[in-house]
Design brief:
The chain has 341 residues and is of the alpha+beta class. The protein folds into two domains: 53 residues, Orthogonal Bundle (Transcription Termination Factor Rho, Rna-binding Domain, Chain A, Domain 1), CATH 1.10.720.30; 201 residues, Nucleotidyltransferase, domain 5 (2-Layer Sandwich), CATH 3.30.420.10. It has twelve helices and eight strands. The longest helix has 22 residues.
Length: 341
């Protein structure tokens, strides 16, 4: 539902937040990766004064050399190191810098120097919701597909998936536009369970994988809409409380823009894939296929050295940014839905 999400307009009667785009303009995201090419990331446990370690001077010198390389020189060096040679010049440059940074930090970590890790797993979510071709200002989007794709951040592999369709309550009849866009038919939603039942199965799926208990994890989305709008509205429609495990997430668009230093206009799903030398796999606007492709981008960013970390959250019904100075915490253990009544 990538591009269509951006075309959602009008007041959100059930959401106490201004439009997502306005929020993003007012609160630019904090940098998840170094603000300057010569300033590498540090772990959450490090203080700002820790940049005095000699490893950072070595990394800065390597970054300066990489900045002067041509695209062909970058491609040759990446090939020598058996790294991915796909992508535009800035992507290849970032990949090579991240490789050297990682090697240096691993070396110094073995000697008691700085290192950096965040989550064991990242869980990608990309909802599909009811929609009209021209959504009226008071249209309430209901979730009709709940997919999840699980990334193991240690092996950098997609290790599991979850998918269920959801029966809408307020607008049980899907529009022709919605069916054509998502590929979800009327029969699929009529045979599905209502949202609270599906959410309970999501919780069970997460619990079986010991996320939030044995393993540290975070939710990742393509933009702010999934959590701040769709899930927020759906919980109100279903008369259940917003799940605590989904109150903070990684907005991969912000992460991608900050890491590769590109404007927000170049962070659509299709554009991110293209710039990384990847092609879309599956059916566009299928929630599960979109989630898989978003996961592929996340894996590539991790391979390129980006430290994906939570950068947005919901608080009191409002969408807020999470500053990079905030402590890095995993999502809490998931629990069954609780009624608002």
């Amino acid at each position: 539902m990538d591009e269509h999400k951006e075309n959602i307009h009008g007041q959100e009667d059930n959401v106490k937040t201004s439009s997502v785009k306005d929020q993003e303009k007012e609160k630019p995201s904090s940098r998840l990766c170094p603000a300057g090419e010569s300033s590498p990331q540090v772990s959450p446990s490090q203080s700002k004064g820790d940049f005095s370690h000699p490893v950072y001077k070595e990394i800065a010198l390597a970054n300066g050399h990489i900045n002067r390389m041509t695209k062909e020189e970058l491609r040759i060096k990446l090939a020598e190191l058996k790294l991915d040679t796909r992508g535009v010049k800035d992507v290849m440059k970032k990949r090579l810098k991240s490789h050297y940074k990682k090697q240096k930090l691993m070396q110094t970590a073995a000697e008691g120097g700085p290192t950096d890790t965040y989550y064991d797993y990242i869980c990608v979510v990309d909802f599909e919701a009811t929609c009209e071709e021209d959504n009226p200002s008071d249209f309430l989007h209901e979730i009709i597909e709940f997919p999840m794709v699980l990334i193991n951040t240690h092996t950098l592999e997609i290790v599991d998936t979850f998918q269920e369709y959801v029966k809408p309550e307020l607008n049980p009849q899907l529009s022709d536009f919605c069916v054509k866009l998502t590929g979800i038919t009327q029969k699929m939603v009529e045979e599905a369970d209502p949202f609270p039942v599906v959410l309970q199965r999501v919780v069970s799926w997460l619990q079986k994988r010991e996320l939030g208990t044995k393993y540290k994890y975070a939710i990742l989305t393509d933009g702010s809409w999934d959590m701040s709008k769709f899930l927020n509205i759906q919980c109100r429609v279903s008369r259940i409380k917003y799940p605590p495990f989904a109150k903070k997430w990684i907005n991969i668009r912000k992460s991608y823009g900050n890491f590769y230093k590109v404007p927000r206009t170049q962070t659509k799903l299709s554009t991110m894939l293209e710039k990384l030398g990847l092609t879309y796999e599956g059916r566009p606007h299928s929630g599960l296929d979109d989630s898989r492709n978003i996961a592929r981008i996340a894996v590539r960013m991790l391979q390129d050295g980006c430290q994906l970390r939570v950068n947005e959250r919901m608080h009191g019904g409002q969408l807020l940014s999470v500053p990079s100075s905030a402590p890095v915490e995993g999502a809490p253990p998931p629990h069954n839905p609780r009624s608002r009544d």
